Structure formats: C-alpha cells, structure tokens
Amino acid sequence: MSTSSSNNASRLLRKSALNATRFSTTKTPWFFAAVCFLWASFLTVTMLSSNEQSLEFNRERMNREIEARVTRELVKREKKLKKKKLLVPSADEEEEEEEEEEEEEEENSGNKNNRERIRKGPLAGAYRSRNRQAAALAAEKSDKNNEKRQFKGPFGRVERLIFEKGQAKKKLELEHLEKERTRRALDAHLEDADEDEEKTPGDTLDVEEKIQEALGGALEREKSHDEEEDEDEKRRRLIEMDGSDSATESEPLTTFPQSIYGQAHLLKDLPGFPEMPPLVLSAVKPKAYLFRNFLSAEECDHLMKLAKAELAPSTVVGAGGTSVPSTIRTSAGMFLRKAADKTLENIEYRIAAASGTPEPNGEGMQILRYDVGQKYDPHFDYFHDAVNPSPKRGGQRMATMLIYLENTKEGGETIFPRGTRAETFDLTEEGNPHEWSECTKHGLPVKSVKGDALLFWSLTDDYKLDMGSLHGACPVVKGQKWTAVKWIRVAKFDGMFTSPLPMPALSRRTEQHGKCVDEWDECAKWAKDGWCEKNKDFMVSNGGARDSKGPACPVSCNVPCPEQ
C-alpha cells in the first residue's frame, strides 16, 4: 500500500508540474505581449505630443525671424544710403555692423541646423506627409465649397462668374493694401534718416516708381476684368436689380424679363421639372403653366420613334365613346400603351407629379404629328355626353398635359382664343418670339418648342367647365409639329366606378382644412435654390397654386397665405 501511495503521489506531482509548464508556455507570452503593446502605444502618443509642441515652437520662432529679417533689411537700406552720401561710419558703427553680421551668421547656421533636424527627425516624414494631407484636404474642402456655391442655384454658372469676380477684386484689394503698407514703411524709415543731409532721391524714386507701376498694373487688371463681364453676368445683375435702377446716359435701360418667354429664355439651358418650377402662363381662364425642358431631347426622340410606325389619321371621341373621323382635326396620331417601356413610365409619373394627381388617373398618351396646313380647331377637352365621363371610365377629363416633341419652324402654335395676354406678353425682349402666325392674333398663344410642356385645367374646383380652356392647334406653315398629349381624369382611368365621382381638391389647403401649406413636394428644394425671388409669380404670388387662390410655396418662401 505504501508503494502504491508513493507512486500516486509522484504521478500527481508530475501532472501538476506539467500543467504549470503548459500555463507558462501558453498564457505568459500573451500577457507580456499585451504589456509591451500598451507601453509602445504610450511612447508613440508621447512622441507625437512632444513633436506637435516642437512644431508650434518652430512656427513662432520663424515668425520672429521674419520680423528680424525685415528690420535688418531696413537697416541695410539705411547703410546703403549713407554710403551713397559718402558718409564715413565711425568705429562704433563698424563694430556694431560686425556684431550684427556675426549674429546673422549664427542665426542662419542655427536655422539651417534646425531645418536639418526637422528633416532628419524620426517622425519628420510622417509630419510632412500629414501636413501635405491636411493642405490637400483644406484645398479639397475649399473646392467643394466653391462647387456648392457654383451649382447651388439654377443660375449656377452666373453665380460662379460673380463669385470669381468678387475673389479677383478681393485679391486686387489685398495687393493694393500690401503695396501701401510697404510704401508707408519705407517713408517712415527714410524720415528717420539724417534730415540735415541732402537726401539722394535715386533709391527712393526707384521704389516709388515700382510701387506706382504695381498699382497701375493692378488697376489695369481690375478695369480689364470689368470689361470682360459676359452676358450671363449682366443677366444676373439684372435679376438682382429687378428693374429698380434707372439707366445712365452711357447705358440704356434694361430690366429683368417681364414676358413669359423672356423669362423662359433664361431657363433654356437648365434642367426642367422637378429641378425647377414651372412658369405661370395664365392664372385664370385658363389656369395654365409652362414647363421649360420638361422632357430631354432624347426622351422626345424616343416618343416620336415609338409612334412613327403606327401613325394614322387622327380621330375624335364620339358620343358613344368610340373614335370617329373628324374634319376639325387633320393630324396623324396613335396611342401608346401605358408604361410600354421604362422611359414612358418615368414620363407618366413625372406628369402626375407636375399636375399633383395620381398616376392611374392619366389616360394612355397620344402622339400627334401635324404636317404643313394641318391643324386642330378650337375645342374643349371636357366631355359633353354622358358615356365618356361616366364613373366607370374615371369621370371627366380635368386637366391636360401637352408636350412639344419638336421645334416647329413656323406656325403650329397652341392657341387659347378666350385667354388674355398679359400687358408684358409681347414686350421686345431677348428670347420672346415676335413672329406669330395669323392664327394667334387673338387670344393666348404657346410656341411649339422641343421639350416644353403646357399644363392646363378644363375644370374648376367646383366641377364646372372652365370656359377659358377652349384651345386649338394653329395650322403648320413650315416644318412639322409633334406633340404628346396626356389627359387626366378626376379618378382612375377605366376604374369601373359605379357611383358619381367628386372633383378632387385642386389645393392642399382644401385637404388640410384651410391650413397654410406648400402645394408641391419640391417647394423646399426650390426655395433653397433661390426660386422664391427668381420666379415670384409662381412661388409667392396668389396665382401660383392650382386653384389660383394662393402662392405655390408659402411655407418654404416664408410668405402668408391669403385669408380664407
């Protein structure tokens, strides 16, 4: 028994020793590695902090050195003047000069050693890299800020030119101040020189000539910069003036465009809805908006390509709901199936957003082509029979979106015979067409411009026919006219409703029980882009909303709604 007990004891001792060895070989190295890592991190942080303090100290010392160098340069200039006057310096002055030269050499050598130490330090490369990265980030941030200013508003290019001109002027002003500061310093120094001796004007005159030459060059650059102001910058200035300033004798009176097409001309190169709001073509009788660049050129070409293979003589809707030939409509046309492809689907949803109506309320889009001599006599889009506006078909047509797919060379205008032209409609302004066809002598005409869209309402908010919505297509005189027409019902098209359909509210204020609200989802973005000032008729005037009883974006533009 004693032998077995001793064997067991020795076995246990060996097992415990083995476990201790395993612990020491597996656990202990990790512990020391963690301690070493923490110590190395502490040393790194300490070194970085000390180097930052060293860098700050070096900056301050460099500033002091710069000031000392400026002082020495002024002293050297004084000594040169004395030499020119043939003044013999005293022994004390020679000793002071020698001491100053020795001090300058010592400072230069010390600066050189410091620069070498900084370049050769253990973290010099890291700090130089960090400084370069910081400078790059600062430059990138500045560029981004300039980009935001550049493209912040719809008149981005104009604002950019104004910003660059302001920066150039600031630079010229700084140069001018620097030259003045240098001249004052030199004058003050020369006044302290020996007043009894006759001053030698040569050096002073050279400095004065250089200063005057630099100032003259700065003024010339500023003058040339003003003369190079282009048309976009002038137009931007006119927008800010808003016609409030009177003309001078050398410059004729010019004002911000007051005609609808004069204003539209300013938007010819800008993206259309929803990036920018529409223009109010007519506030009442009819209620109509003009959307510039509603479709891109590629979208217009795509719709014409879809239609060309199936064009046929146009028809009108008969009393029984069927299509019948007509002598008042002589164009060729065809209907596109809703959401026939992705491009068409995107356009249909864009029309719904612009009109403020659900997309299912829209009928299938019709593409029309008018050749020379073809036209569409004045008519209403509102139905006068009982079958077409029935609840099962979605009720009456309440609005129409008419999109122009091609520029018509002459004629082919859309005309509202009962519409009223504003007093400013035919003003002589850039971009305002002055050659209308004979068909447009009376009423409110709309030019066929590729990508533009015309949105007007046939019904008022009380479900009554708007007599001002009578419209027609003038005969084409030259070229062709291509249009895409979208009719919008009061409810889902062919929704198979069984009860009478109420007219939907034209204003969100009606839905919100008179609360003052923005009428468009895009109002906040438009206000941020500056449209509250650039498109007042739509954004803040009472004719902007769809019911023409308030502004389109009162909340975003911070203007009150009219009292109910």
Sequence-ordered SSE layout with sheet pairings:
Layout: H1 2-26, H2 28-84, H3 91-120, H4 124-151, H5 156-191, H6 201-227, H7 231-241, H8 260-266, E1 279-282, E2 288-291, H9 297-308, E3 312-313, E4 315-317, E5 323-325, E6 332-335, H10 342-355, E7 366-370, E8 376-379, E9 397-404, E10 410-411, E11 414-416, E12 444-446, E13 453-457, E14 471-473, E15 476-478, E16 481-489, H11 508-511, H12 523-528, H13 531-534, H14 536-539, H15 554-557
Antiparallel strand pairs: 1-2, 2-13, 3-6, 4-5, 6-7, 7-16, 8-14, 9-13, 9-16, 10-15, 11-12, 11-14
Number of strands: 16
The CATH topology annotation of the largest domain reads as: Jelly Rolls
Spatial sequence of strands, sheet with the most strands: 1-2-13-9-16-7-6-3
Indicate the mean pLDDT.
77
Counted up, domains total 4
Largest sheet: 8 strands, antiparallel
CATH-level-2 architecture of the largest domain: Sandwich
> Can you tell me the CATH class of the largest domain?
Mainly Beta
Oligomeric category: single chain
Number of helical regions: 15
Helix content: 40-55%
Please mark out the parts with pLDDT under 50 across 5 or more consecutive residues, or reply none. 114-120, 196-205, 239-254
* End-to-end gap: 112 Å
CATH superfamily of the largest domain: q2cbj1_9rhob like domain
